[in-house]
Specification:
The chain is of the alpha+beta class and 132 residues long. It has a domain of 88 residues. It has four helices and three strands, in the order E-H-H-E-E-H-H.
């Protein structure tokens, strides 16, 4: 799969042109339902937010695959549009903690050297559930 050159990551306009667009729409529905069920937001009228600047949302889609290349599932993620931040005003207001690849490689190297057991876990909606 790594050498096939097939792109499995899309933005909304591209995903809606794909033959499996219905599965991406179902993934969007699931993403919105999960956020709603976990009370991650509440709807408010724009007129009630005053001078606060709203941040647009952007959809990201991915076909998740097993190691053999077969399709596992369709994923949809609703993200804040990071390109709307203004340096000096809102640039430092958000932070998404992510692991640096060198840290992962170092931990895997240490686990091999010391014969430690390793595993990988995929958390559903991990970022919205994390403490700020």
């Amino acid at each position: 799969m790594a050498t096939s050159g097939k792109n499995d990551t899309f933005y909304f306009h591209d995903a809606m042109k794909e033959p499996d667009r219905d599965q991406f729409i179902m993934a969007m529905t699931k993403e919105l339902k999960d956020h709603h069920d976990n009370n991650h937001w509440k709807l408010v009228k724009r007129s009630t937010i005053g001078e606060a600047k709203t941040v647009k949302a952007i959809w990201a889609f991915k076909r998740k695959r097993r190691p053999d290349g077969s399709l596992l599932k369709h994923k949809a993620r609703l993200n804040a549009h990071g390109g709307m931040q203004v340096y000096g005003e809102t640039y430092w207001d958000t932070y998404a903690p992510v692991v640096n690849w060198i840290s992962i490689r170092m931990m895997l190297t240490l686990s091999v050297i010391h014969s430690l057991y390793t595993t990988s876990i995929d958390f559903t909606l991990a970022f919205p559930q994390a403490e700020v």
